[in-house]
Description:
alpha/beta; 17 helices
Amino acid sequence: MTTRRSPVPTDQGGRSVSVLGSTGSIGTQTLEVIRSEPGRFRVVALSARSSMELLVAQAREFRPEVVVVGHSSQVAEVRNGVPADCEVLVGAEGLEGAASGADVVVNGVVGFAGLKVTLAALGAGKRLALANKESIIAGAPVVRQARLTPGAELVPVDSEHCAVHQCLRAGGPREVSRLLLTASGGPFRTWSAEQLAEVTVADALQHPTWSMGAKITVDSSTLINKGLEVIEAHELFDVPYDAIDVVVHPQSIVHSMVEFTDGAVVAQLSEPDMRLPIGYALSFPERLAHPFGAIDWSGLQRLDFEPPDRSRFPGLDLAYAAGRTGDLAPAWLNAANEVAVAAFLAGKIPWSAIADVVKATLDAYDGGHDGGGSGAEAGRTVDDVLEADASARRVAEGHVDDRARQS
Length: 407
Ligand code: MG
């Protein structure tokens, strides 16, 4: 571990950006956006836990001051490849430094590991461009506290929430009556319960409209992703669960909508292209000059909407229930789901067991180690969240083993 100059200086022109999780789907698309508007943004930090060759290539192109790798075994390879003036840091401490030293921190880290990045960016009073929904869901009680830091600002990258963020600009907070989150319905929207019992990993990784990482693609197939997004919307926009609805919209053109008290519904439309919400979060309150996902109206045929099927996709209501329970229940939901999805991808449990494992785990939620109770939520610490995550994982792994033994 080396020490580093901190914070990263931001007076060299262009808004400074840390891209954390830079070799993943969000990270690489963030760099495409930055590449599209030369001089507007300046990359000051990159991080990755795998794909070191790509990380080195990114560092050569964007010349960040810092790159952060996951393990000390990766340092030598990366240090030999990156420019000589680029510092190479390791692990959580390096990540936290990189997350506190830029104007905008793009959190594209996958899964619960993104929590530390979220807290470091908000705690340093920076803008967080949040693609890592797990951190605001699992870490809700502590992220709420971190958002109170002067200067801290959270702009969602998740396409639905970015859409809501845009639609909300059409009215005042007291004029909002409902958020309508759209869902593609995933690859199994039209599958029968019998077909769902036979889903393979390859089936689940075929998303009809979006190209994303494996975890979120499986989450879309179970609708648990949409359930997590309901909780994310509640946290981001402070709207009660009864006023957040999900609408299935297979074309993924309407990215979400806001209904106002006078009955007007405002929607945001574009082709499904994550570079639009990424660019929005980087440039807000201005807009990018370069278009991503602009619709070709001569080709658009129709937009369909239908209610979600809550019996074939029970993950949606599991998420609503965890959200309404609040406190650390969303942390349990998220951890159980991560364990179940990993077990499915590893071939240990069938697709249909993902929701079973999540439900069985949530049934064991006891309000956290102290039993929760009034006032517990406001005093939560990162350790409480970590402990909840670990407890839920233990319980979920027990259920995975039970299921694996059955099949
Ligand atoms: Mg989304």
